[in-house]
Structures are given as C-alpha cells and as structure tokens.
Amino acid sequence: MKQHYSALSLLRHGINRHTTWAPAWRSPPLKDHYDVIVIGAGGHGLATAYYLAKDHGLTNVAVLDRGWLGGGNIARNTITIRSNYMRDASIPFYVKSVALYEAMTRELNFNMMHSKRGMIDVIQNYPMMRDRRRRQHIMDIYGATYEQITEAEIRRRIPALTGGGPDARLPVVGGYVHTDAAINRHDAVAWGYARAIDAMGGEIHQQTPVTQLLRGPDGRIAGVETPRGVIRAPKVAVAVSGHTTTLTETVGLTLPLRTMNLTAFVSEPVKPLIDVIVNCPDAGFYLNQSDKGELVIGGAPDTGQSFRRDIKQTVFEDTVSAMLSLFPSFKKLKFLRQWGGHLDIAHDASPIQDETDVPGLFVTAGWWGGYKAIPAGGLTLAHLVATGRPHPLMEPFGINRFRHLDYVMETGTTTAR
Amino acid sequence: MMQIPCPFCGPRNESEFFYGGPVRPSRPDPAAVNDEDWTAWLTQVPNPLGPVQEHWWHARGCGTWLTIWRDTRTHDVVEAPDDAG
Q1: Minimal Cα–Cα distance from B39 to chain A, Å?
Q2: Residue B85 has pLDDT above 80, yes or no
C-alpha cells in the first residue's frame, strides 16, 4: 500500500489537520486498450480485479462502472456473510468466502468492521426443521457450523422475539444457529478493494457505462463500446448482476437468468436490542441491528421479473406484517430508508461463472444474495480469466451444467424463503 | 400499489393476485427437438429490459387466470387482456 493506514498514521495526519492524506485511489485517463476489462465495479468486479493483480500479476486491467464506486448492489444488500447452503458444490465455496472475509481487514489494511455475530434461524414448522437438519449434515462435512437450539434458547438469546407463542398461527418450534455468520461494512469492501487495486496498478473508471459488447471478425470478444469511446481488450468479464442478459444479448447470447428485485429497509436507530442476525424463513423476513442501532430488515423478493431499484408496496407490507407477527413491539418503529437492487437468478438458483460461447467473454452472474460470495467469487473468476481453467471451487457452476441438466439446485436456500 | 386489470373485475390491487410466472412456449416433444432447443426450453425464459408477458391469477377475487404484458423497468401494465375493465 502506498499509504498504510494505522493508529500512528491517523495521529500523524491528525497533527497536520488531516490535510496530508493522499487519495485512496487515482482517476487515471481512460486508455483504448487493456489486457482485461471488468464490467461492473461492484463487489464481484472489484474482487476479480484485485485477485487478477494479486494472484496472477495482471495489472493492465480496467474496471468500468456505469455509476459511482460503491453505488450499485454492493450498497443495496443486507451485508450478511454466511455459508449455510444445501449442496456439496456450494458449501465449500461459501466456507472459503467466509474465511476470506474474516481475513479482509488485515489483507486490505482497511477496517471492514467485521462482526462475527452468528445467525439464528427461527423455525416455525417441522418440515423446515428437517430441511435444516439435512443442511447441518452436509455442512458438517465441510466445516460450516450449524447447531440446533430449542425455542427457549432462541427466546433467551433474542428477548425482543415475543411473538410466535403456542397460540400463534405459526408457533416457533425451534431453530438453528450458524455461528460462522457475520456482518461487515459494505462501503469498506468497495473502497478497500479499490484502494488495493489502484496500489497494484489496476484502474477503476466510474461513470463509464458499457452499451455494447464488441466481437471481432474471428468471433472472439474484441472489447466494449462506451459513451467515452470504444475500449479494446482480448478478455472481458461481465460482473453486472441484473443486467447480465441485457449485455450478453448484444452479442446474441442468451442465458438461463431472470432479473428480479430484492429489497430491504432500515428503521430509526434504537438502543442495542439484537446482537445476532435473525432469519425467519417461515414468516418470510430477516433482520440485524447495525452498529448505529438501526434495524436492517429484508424480506422475500418481488415475485415477477423486475429491473427496478426501489421497494414495492406489496413487498413492504408483507415483510412488515411478517416481522410484526414475531416482533410485535416493533410496531412503533419508524422507518428511515428503503432500497432495492436488481439481481439475476439462474434456473437452479446457483451462480453461473464461466467463459461463454463467445471466446474471451466471461460472465459471473446469478449471485442471488451475492454479497457473501464477493471475495471467493473474485478469486475464482480471476483464476478462470487468467488461466482459462475454472477454479476447483467453481467447477460445478459452469454454463454447461444446464446443457447436461446437471443442476446445482439451491432453490429455497438463497433468501429468506 | 400496482393495479392489474382483470377482464371481469376491472383494475384491482396486486395484493389480490398470485404471480403465475412468465409465459413460455408450450412444451416441445423432447424426442422431436435437438438438445439445444430442449435445454433452452427447460431453463430459459425471456428476460427483457422492457415488456414481459406473464400469467397472473386473481386468487383473492374472481379466480380467473389472465395474461398481461408488464414493463420490467416501471411495472406499468402495457397490454391488458381483452375486455379488461
């Protein structure tokens, strides 16, 4: 790092009235040719550029974004980091991602405000308890933690959970604790990666939307078209979440992805009340309390396809009524903000990361709830782009699985429902 | 709240409806199509940045199934079933 962050540096720059800090990253002029273009300066795009430089020495790399750094889906999520998945293909990947997140503050010399507070699944019917037990047995193999707890233990650890009693339509029957789960600060992930990429020589170009992918006469990817001009590169990686198909269709490529809207909202700050991530899959919502005291609340996705970035009234009402069934005291809370992101979900609800039928064009998509996957997703995509071979952790997630009907079915494990 | 035009009841709130998924072509005979078309039918749906055709069920109303074109950017219903109020 050009400028190491520490308590000492804070003191030194503080004595100079904070006038001596260097910018954390440059804004270099846009060149017309790079070795690799990464489209999307979100979590996955930035992590990819970071690992391209760190693990593979590729630094003639441009990360392009239509908006500003940290303004896309990396700012439109509920910062939940976890690895409680269902399939043998998925769990090791997310275990790796959780480990990379835990090491990120030191690795990037940037305070991620990582808080490994654990997640409690509050279960309200027996089929869901069996589903959790099945997950536990598979997670045990790969070292992800999942432990059953009683209703009494849930109520001891989450005193605000006063609904779901024996007379409720859906009484709480028990739960599972995922002690690996954590939350951190989403801006820090974007800024920390951007600073590290910049220090190694990579470039980040904001306000540079890609309008069209370009193919050469040989059929390979040739570059991208932007309002700032054509930029050429032999390799282009698409990490744009909901707009993946919009971009790949510009070179005639269809993918088994649907774009949907997932939203969250935040209450006014209140006193410390809940120190774990609470997930209530049967009621259909999840929440955690931020360091500022705000309750961060998410629900089920909107049902149909959507490219909107706000919350729909029906989704908001459903989520609030579900939350009040278990946390009736939250009825008096006022809400401060809402947001939505459009993300794509693949046919089997697992990610797609592969080189496409257009040689040199890579996609990383279908990251339904992709925040938790950022470091490992970048690690594996960088490996694929640099070496041409899929990373072992990502091998099951190629496009060909749909041609061979070899799905990695994670439907039902990726969001509250 | 999004209003969906029901051909029998007129425009009604979305909360009265269940989403029935995007309209797909009818299932081809797997033996009669090539592998590419077969897996495309199984796994892919149109994902347009714009109008998409989809089914909705007026479950908390008259119970009819209807088909609309809805814009995925705005959620405006751009084409409603015939005779919709």
Answers
A1: 6
A2: no
pLDDT band (50, 70, 90) for residue A417: very low
What is the full DSSP assignment across A355-399? Answer: E-SSTTEEEEE--TTGGGGHHHHHHHHHHHHHHSS--GGGGGGST
A314 phi and psi, to 5 degrees?
-65, -40
Query: B49 in a domain, yes or no?
Result: yes
- The CATH fold assigned to A119-181+258-346 is D-Amino Acid Oxidase; Chain A, domain 2 (3.30.9)
The answer to whether the CB atoms of B52 and A305 lie below 8 A apart is yes
Instruction: Yes or no: say if A228 and A275 are a contact pair by the CB < 8 Å rule.
Output: no
Domain that holds residue B19: 3-79
Q: For residue A414, what pLDDT is reported?
A: 61
pLDDT interval class at B82 (50, 70, 90) = confident
Residues of A in contact with B40 (CB under 8 A): 254
A98 to A84, A108, A197, A276: CA distances (angstroms) = 11, 15, 21, 16
At residue A326 the predicted structure's pLDDT band, cuts being 50, 70 and 90, is very high
Residue type at A315 in one-letter notation: V
**pLDDT at res. A416:** 41
* Cα(A140)–Cα(A148) distance, integer angstroms: 13
With vertex at residue A125, the alpha carbon angle to CA A123 and CA A128, rounded to the nearest 5 degrees, is 70
Q: Which CATH number among 3.40.830.10, 3.50.50.60, 3.40.50.1370, 3.40.50.2300 corresponds to the domain A7-109+185-256+347-403?
A: 3.50.50.60
* Cβ atoms A208, A30 nearer than 8 A: yes
Compute the nearest-CA separation of A346 from chain B (Å): 8
Closest to A399 measured CA to CA, from A376, A375, A365, A372: A365
Judge contact between A260 and B22, C-beta under 8 A: no
Whole-number Å distance between alpha carbons of A385 and A362: 7
d(CA A204, CA A53): 13
State ipTM: 0.93
How, if at all, do strands A235-238 and A36-39 pair? parallel
User: What is the Cα–Cα distance from A366 to A257, expressed in whole angstroms?
Assistant: 7
Q: Average pLDDT for residues A293-322, to the nearest whole number? A: 93
According to DSSP, residue B79 is labeled E
- Taking only the tens place, the pLDDT of each residue in A18-67 is 999 999 999 999 999 999 999 999 999 999 999 999 999 999 999 999 99
A→B contacts (Cβ < 8 Å), by residue, are 243, 245-246, 254-259, 303-308, 312-314, 317, 344, 347, 402-403, 405
Q: What is the mean pLDDT of residues B32-61?
A: 96
Residue B10 placed within a domain: yes
* Number of compact structural domains in chain B: 1
CATH number (domain holding residue B38): 3.30.2270.10
Residues of chain A within CATH 3.50.50.60 domain(s) are 7-109+185-256+347-403
